[in-house]
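[Automated response] Your request has been received and processed.

Submitted sequence:
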Amino acid sequence: QVHLVESGGGLVQAGGSLTLSCGASGSIFSINTMAWYRQRPGKSRELVAGITSAGTDYSDSVKGRFTISRDNAKNLMYLQMNSLIPEDTAVYYCNAKLQRSEDWGQGTQVTVSS
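Generated structure:
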């Protein structure tokens, strides 16, 4: 099991930037994939970006604006979010996929004002 804690959410104006962090502890060596998901108001949770040893992947809605990265030495994952738009307003969740299970953080709120 992996314990995940997100931080860095907040209120930002449209066009601004924000960086989310996710700290991992526990069975971190069992992690295959880490990812950021978000849940916008009234919507289901959706994948924003994922990262593995092979590379990164992004949803079309954030491609070119968001960057996912990972610092394995510090057990941290980041989501650099640029050119934010009001539609990015959501609770952002950190996710870790292990071989037979997955774990979630508690989420961090990002609000983009117009």
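Summary generated for your ticket: The mean pLDDT is 96. Residues 21 and 98 are 19 Å apart (CA to CA).
If you did not submit this request, please reply to this message.
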